[in-house]
Please model this.
Amino acid sequence: MEFLGAKMLFIVICISLIIFSGSVAPAYKVHLDSFYGRTAAVIAVLVATELGGWPIGILAAMVVLILMPATISEGFVGTALEGFTVEVDKPTTDKNRWFIERVMKEKPKRVERDNIITLAPY
Model:
């Protein structure tokens, strides 16, 4: 009970960071993605868990995971372009439909670039 005010303040700050995570400057996210930033984040979560208990530790971990950018270094994982490699603009046939189109009874009319125009029965 002695840290109730500090716990409430920490919870409000964590919830505010979760809500406004899109407004955090990218420069801060870059610093959080460094070795020292990740080490400080792990230590901060451990300290929050030790001082506030496991619910506050989970809240702190959520804040860290939401704020940490999901970047992958080049060369670490092979990258591939997804989608159509050439511009496709041709009518589709009934025999070349995807499984989900057959199940959902969709009848695609035409493929245009990366959008597919369908005629759904609903």
